Sequence to fold (569 residues):
Amino acid sequence: MIVAWFRLCTKLLRNEIMKTITKIEFKDTAIAKIKVDELEFSYTDKASQIRHKDRLYIPFNVPKRSTLKGLKLCVHKNTSNKYFVINFWFEKKANLYKVGKYEDGFGTKEVEDKLLPIVRSHTDDNGHWIKNPNTTDREKIRVIKKEDKIAIERKTVNEGIEALMNADMPKIASEGTLCAKSIREQSRFLIGYDKRTGFLSYSDDDNGNGHVSFRPNYKSRSIAPVSWSELFEKYPSGSGMIKDKKKNKNGQVSLYDNQDYGKQYIDEFDKKQIQNYINSLGGTYSYKKGCLTAIKTLWNFCNDKGWLNNAEYDPTKTIKIKRPTKYSDLAVNTSYNDKSFSRTQLQTVLSKLQELTSNYPFASENVQLVFLTGQRQEETYKLKKKDLEWWNEPVHVQLDNGTTETIYGKINFQKGITKRRNKGKFYLINQDIKDLLDRVEAIYKRPGYENYKLVPWLFPSPTRIDSKRLNNQEGAYIKSNLTRLRSTKGLWERVRTETGILGVVRMARKTLISLGKDAGLTNKQLKPLSNHDQERTMDINYDKSQLPDIMKACGTVAQILRFPNKKAG
Fold:
């Protein structure tokens, strides 16, 4: 009856009721009175959809400056179990520490007795946490294979992985973190093939640094964890592994879930051990290379932290992964690394892309831009409308064949989105690219796409955008990575099927270079075309030496790629 009545309440009334049960007294009698079947485990999200939790966290009414600060009662819906947990901040991250299960012999008095020495030894005089009690507990129980006098300063492979993920995977050779794509790819080898990755969301900031945030897992009806500690507590090593062959066809197990290597010290995970681990993996050559890259990131992170005993060199540097001699033993896309499209094939592909723009708005235009410029697709995904720089007056360039090409401005690739993230670059807007950008602008006039103009990205994603949140003009959501294009896989599969032309989108870069050479352009002319440096040539007004040559090369390539386009309807 209580549950039914609660669900019939208005949203406003529900919020008021929740306020009344937000805190409970720190007494065993108050805890005993809580009945699980009388609690509401559902909530309404921002889209007004009803979601379900598998646990509730009820704060205790305790003094703010006591050792009980942050203490909550965690109530599990399925088991009806109640746990004492404490929320705390450590190294600018929210963490959760499980104090113990509420049961006979462990109540409020025992919690106070347990927390007093922990809080005193793990916090400073201001009550700020200077050590993580979860780490302290793991140090007591972890499995080690070798005795060492400084064992307390070392980390196991799994502890290193946990710390690495919590730090958003810092880069090895420079400041900042890996980009979101690299974090997502490497985390697959370290903690993936497990249900824990279903709670993770990846995004880049304006400087190209990747970050991981937590999100609900709607498929399992599970709320988002508040910290990495909670996530790893829910899915410890060896649990929650994905056995669905569609999602994990080779039955891969992540390093974190590997029971032979995860609990040993990271410095015992030496060259021989890593080589044995890589050799034991199934999968393709590319898969093994990706796994080795992830281990390299992990090893160097732990080395920088000082968690390796007598570490002298990076053991991953000398590990060899033999390249197979048969294409059948390579990943499917690897076979296209050294291939390019012919001009006829390119014409067919571009025509088909224009034809499919009504079915794949923005995605079609994105792939066209990749083929017309030879730029990396991952970089074009992150372009913003403000990166288009239109000149006040177009520039007419006289080519060696006597024809004239017009340049209207440039597309600025900010250093935060480029591959190396150390320099920005740009690509000039010739007539064909201007026509393409005009077609992008025309999409906003289609019914249902008017509000897409609010999105800052040059290529929004109709398949990912929440129309309700967009129409409600939620500023933070609109500006986030959740609204930009991240894949054109469906579009490209259709292009391949309907044209019969095999290949991958990244072949566009080699295609442009190959066609340029066939037209007589030198490497010197082609190099700035695909990688002109913003720091060298920032503005048409003050660099008179390099820009004319770049414009001439851009115009020449435009003529090579040009053909009578089939206009999209």
User: Anything to note?
Assistant: Confidence is low (pLDDT under 50) at residues 1-20, 148-152, 532-545, 565-569. The first helix runs from residue 2 to 8.
